Amino acid sequence: MPEGSTLQLAALADEGYEFEAWWDGETESERSYVLNAPVEISATFIEAEEPEPELFEVTIAQVENGSIQVMCEGEEVSSGDLLPEGSTLQLAALADEGYEFE
Description:
By secondary structure, the protein is mainly β. The chain contains no helices and nine strands. It is rod-shaped, with a radius of gyration of 28 Å.
């Protein structure tokens, strides 16, 4: 390319990585670069950090004439337990003797 050409650069990270910087310290992943001398263009990528899942506190209400059972992945859940966002809960309404679920 002739001197003075404008290059359009875009750093595209592979899955699990994120762009950190260009060879000259610039940190914008997309940019224009004016070619005014021979240059070796390179970019640095770092491993992306997985965000910690948000945790939610489970509250199981006390009920009259029965109880509520909450299970998550085969484990019983108690009031006050913290579970990650997106957890699937299995719920069971257990009636005391002489009562039925309505």
